[in-house]
Amino acid sequence: MDTSPNSASGTPSQGPATPRAAEAESYYGARKRLFIGLITGTSFLICTILLLFWVVPYIGLGNIHPILPYVSGAFLFVLIVVIAWASLGLVLHILKGRPVLGTQRIRGLTIKLFLPLMVLLARFLGIPKENVRHSFIKVNNELVRSENDTFAPEDILILTPHCLQSSTCTLRLSYDVDHCARCGKCPVSMLLRLRDHYGVQFAIATGGTIARRIVVQKRPRMIIAVACERDLTSGIQDTYPLPVYGVLNERPNGPCLDTLVAEEAIERALRMFIANPPPPVNLNALITPASRD
């Protein structure tokens, strides 16, 4: 993959984030230690259950053949070691900000195995599901960022929900975002400006099925997705192994109605993942009188 020469880590240096972008990039107070605690507890429970799967039928297996308890024990021991290694490697990856113990592919195990079990454990412990999703999105983004991969602009897709479009707009943008009048009443005009400036792809989806179809049609190698916690979490799961960097939307009018996004957070993500990005866009200069209303 292409690597930008602008920094030793392969990603261009970033200036300080604006307060709004910083809040979006912090995932509105999400804490990594919640994720670490849940994944540690989940791993312990899985290993305990696997151990019970061996202990309980131990006597019965011995009656079938003397060697069967040892064969099943060896198999389950390997599974326990793999799960313990994966969870430990993931925790160290989160804390150090770089892959350790050969865990470069650990994101897939987190998405496919640990997350559903962590949600169940959190429910049992009375932890709100949204807190788990916040923490998962934050950790996922850090795992994606720590890979230090950069891409050609045309291989990056900005994928957003249709609720970013003004509810009073009569134009249909889900089929072609270039139908936008760029009036500045919603974030779409600024996202189009970012698309044009950086040369990336941009699409609006009306739901999960349409989003998956867009990904198949456009064939990106990396996605910057804007959505709520639930849709971001499911989207990250659905599109794996494609790297997805999630940006939470803002919902001043409630869910799915005239939502907003910190455009600065989108641009910072673009500059993080594009090889040799152009100078940044002056987003403040793009705010029209209509967008201030």
Automatic annotation (TrEMBL):
Keywords: Membrane, Transmembrane, Transmembrane helix. The chain crosses the membrane at residues 34-55, 67-94, 106-126. InterPro entries: DUF116. The keyword Aminoacyl-tRNA synthetase does not apply. Residues 1-16 have a biased composition (Polar residues). The keyword Metal-binding does not apply. Residues 1-20 are annotated as: Disordered. This is DUF116 domain-containing protein. It comes from Desulfovibrio psychrotolerans.
